[in-house]
Design a protein that fits this description.
This protein is α+β, with helices and mostly antiparallel strands. Helix content is 34%, strand content 26%. It has a five-stranded mixed barrel with strand order 1-3-4-5-6. Strand 5 and strand 6 form a beta hairpin. The longest helix is centred in the middle third of the chain and has 18 residues.
């Protein structure tokens, strides 16, 4: 069962984090410097979540991902370079009234199913579509390394690095299980892999 927790959040458009994946961030705004200092002093956890709009205090999507600060580089001027590793998704219950410069929410942490796996035919379809998508867009991929990935790392890796728009990647994050996320990833690669007038997309 998910359990409710207080989560300090970093709403950042276009920077989605998936369980088991890593996200490098350069922290320069004062409120998020404070967020990093607070996280390091407590449990090193930060909730990454997408803003829905561009208002001064943007509304939030319902689902984000809690990450743990692994690598951290503190600079003399107060900025940080950090690397977050995704731990688990969370669902926002409500935003909390706080005195901190950064926002906090009450959220339900969803436990990841480590035993979840794709059927062989599903895995094969995902790898095939990934190769087609990479070839069509001119990406260089170490396919020998890809083949060695477990199913969750493959699916979540595609979801995190593929050049889909924010709404599409949010839909991947919100997929209820690994098999559904893989199916959505295939559909999105087929959709975004179509040739257009602007040429191939670039990786984020």
């Amino acid at each position: 069962m998910p359990n409710a927790q207080r989560i300090s959040i970093f709403p950042l458009a276009g920077a989605l984090l998936f369980p088991g994946m890593q996200l490098p961030l350069h922290i320069f705004e004062p409120r998020y410097r404070a967020l990093v200092r607070d996280a390091v002093a407590r449990d090193r956890r930060i909730g990454m979540i997408q803003p829905r709009d561009q208002l001064p205090v943007p509304s939030l999507y319902d689902v984000g991902c809690v990450g743990r600060i692994g690598e951290i580089e503190a600079m003399e001027d107060g900025r940080f370079n950090i690397v977050l590793t995704g731990i688990a998704r969370f669902r926002v219950i409500r935003e909390l009234e706080v005195s901190t410069p950064f926002r906090q929410v009450e959220g339900l942490i969803e436990q990841e199913n480590d035993d979840e796996a794709l059927a062989p035919i599903e895995r094969a379809a995902l790898e095939q579509e990934s190769r087609r998508f990479a070839d069509a867009n001119g990406y260089s991929v170490d396919w020998a390394a890809v083949v060695r990935l477990d199913d969750a790392s493959l699916v979540n890796g595609i979801a995190q690095v593929a050049p889909f728009d924010v709404a599409a990647k949010q839909a991947l994050l919100e997929a209820p299980n690994l098999r559904e996320r893989a199916e959505r990833a295939i559909q999105l690669m087929q959709f975004f892999g179509r040739a257009d007038d602007d040429g191939p997309s670039t990786l984020q």
